[in-house]
Amino acid sequence: MQYWLMKSEPDEVSIAHLAAEPDRSFPWTGVRNYQARNFMRDAMHVGDLAFFYHSSCAEPGIAGICEICSAAYPDPTQFSAVDRYYDPKSSPDKPRWWLRDVRFVARTRLLGLPEMRACSALTAMPVLARGNRLSITPVTPAEWQFIAGGLLGLNRFRG
DNA sequence: GCCAACGTTGGC
DNA sequence: GCCAACGTTGGC
User: Whose CB is within 7 A of strand C?
Assistant: First the structure.
C-alpha cells in the first residue's frame, strides 16, 4: 500500500468527472514520461490511494482522492494513429506506455498550492518543487496523513 | 500568453 | 556519449 499524487487537467478529467460516475474505472491515459510510467507500471498496487490534483487551471491544487483499481496494462491510446497520444515508436507486442485505472473515492475542498507551500511538513513534496513537471509522484504516509487527516479533515485518515 | 524548467531527440 | 535544439509542462 502506497500513496500517490496524480495530476490531471480538469478541462480533460476532473474529480467531478470521477464523482459523477463513482462505479466507473477511469484509465489514466496519456502519460508519456518514463518516470511516471514506471510508477504506474511497477510501483503501484491495487488499492493504493492518490490525491487527485488539478493542474494547468485557474486554481491548481488537490481536489479529491482516487483509488488505483487495476493492474498495469498498455495505454491503448499509444496504438491509435488518430489519437493525440499516439506513439509511432510503440507497438502492441512491445508497448512503451502503461497505465492503471482509477476510481473515485472522495471530493475534498480545493487545497491550493499556496496553502501547501505554507506547510513546513510538505516542503519535500515534488509537486511543490520549482520546475517540477512529473505528473505522478509518491506521497509519504506522513504527508498523506498531514494533508488528508489534517488539512482536509477527513476522519478516516486521522492519525 | 509568457517563460523557466525540464525531458527527449538526433547529429556528430 | 555529448550536447544543442526542440517541444512540453504548468504556475503565474
Answer: A 7, 9, 32, 55-57, 60, 113-114, 127, 132-135
As for how many domains chain A has, the answer is 1
For residue A78, count other CB atoms closer than 10 A to its CB: 23
Distance A80 CA to C9 C1' (A): 23
The CATH number linked to A107 is 3.10.590.10
A104 vs A123: CA distance, rounded Å: 27
- Report the distance separating Cα A117 and Cα A141, nearest Å: 18
What's the CA gap between A124 and A85, in Å, rounded?
31
Q: Which range of residues forms the domain containing residue A121? A: 3-157
Q: What is the pLDDT along chain A (159 residues), one digit of tens a residue?
A: 999 999 999 999 999 999 999 999 999 999 999 999 999 999 999 999 999 999 999 999 999 999 999 999 999 999 998 899 999 999 899 999 999 999 999 999 999 999 999 999 999 999 999 989 999 999 999 999 999 999 999 999 987
The nt closest to A55 (CA vs C1′) is: C10
